[in-house]
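fwd from M.: "can u put these together and see what the complex looks like"

so here's what she sent:
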Amino acid sequence: MSGKLPDFDLSGFLPYRLAVAAQHVSAGLAGLYRNRFGISVAEWRVLVHLMDSGEVSVRELGQMVSLEKSKASRAATRLAEAGLIEKTENEADRRLVSLSLTDQGRALMAELLPLAIEFQNQLEARLAGHMAALNAALDRLMEEKP
Amino acid sequence: MSGKLPDFDLSGFLPYRLAVAAQHVSAGLAGLYRNRFGISVAEWRVLVHLMDSGEVSVRELGQMVSLEKSKASRAATRLAEAGLIEKTENEADRRLVSLSLTDQGRALMAELLPLAIEFQNQLEARLAGHMAALNAALDRLMEEKP
DNA sequence: TTGACTTCGTTGCAGATGCAACGAATAATC
DNA sequence: GATTATTCGTTGCATCTGCAACGAAGTCAA
C-alpha cells in the first residue's frame, strides 16, 4: 500500500515557482504588445537587441538574447516580411546574414519601448525593496551550469 | 536617421531575466528525469500534486499546478496510458474524472522525489542567503493581476 | 589544389501548445 | 418538467517548438 513517500510541497519548489512567476510576468508584458502590435516574445527580443547593436548575425542574436537559432531565424524572417528589419548578406563572410532595423522598425520601437519601460517601473514598484535582492538571486541562478 | 530611441537594456529587463532564469533552472531539473523516466514537466506536476491530494479532477489539477486544462488533460491521458495514474468516473458528478496515483506511480515518485529534493537543496546552496529574499520577491510578483 | 572539417542559417518533421468548439452532464430559471 | 445556461473533459486545428539534417560558405592541413 502507500509507501514512504517523502513530503514534498510543489508550491515551494523553486523551479516551479520560477516557471509560474516568469509565465505570469511574461503574459502581463505580452498583453501590452501582442495584440496591439502583433509581435511575439521572440520578435520583441530581436527588435530590442537590434536597437542598440546595429548589424547583427542570426547566430549572435541567438546567444545574446537566449533564442534557439531556429527560433531566431524564424523570428527574423517574420520581422523582415513585416518590413521591420532588413536582412543583408555579409560581404566579408557570405555565410552570415546581417540584420538591422528599418526606419519602420525603429518607429515601432519608439512606440513600444516606453510601454516596456513603464512596465518595468510598475514591477519595481510592486517589488518595493525586493528588486535588488531578486536581481542578485537571479544572477546566482544563472552563474553555474545546471 | 536614427531617432530618439530611449536607452534600454534587455539584460536588465525583469521579464526577460525571469524567463531566462526559469528556463535555465527548469532545463537543469528536467535533465534529472526526462531521459531517465521519460516524463515531461506537465506530467511531473500532475504526479506531484496527486501524491498528497488523493483524488483530484482534471480541473482542480489545472488550477492547482498552473496547467492549461487541455495540457492537464493530455498529461493525465499519457500518465494513465503509462499505468502511473488511474482515471475513474466520479459517481457524484459524472462530468468529473477522478485521478489518482497507481502503485506503479507511487513507486516512480519514490524514486523521483529524492532527486527533486536534492535539486532544490543544491539550488538553495547556490543561492546562499538569497533564498528567502527570492521567495519574497516571487510572492510579490504573483500577488497582482498583470 | 584537394579533401576533410567546421560554421552559418534554413528547413523538414514530429511532437507540443493554446484556443475554440464540442458532447455529455449538471444547475438554474421559469 | 421543460428550457436555457453553465461546467467538465476531450479533441480538432493551426501554430509554435526544438532537434537534426542539410546546402552553402569558409577554414585548415597535407
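replying to her w this: The radius of gyration of chain A is 19 Å.
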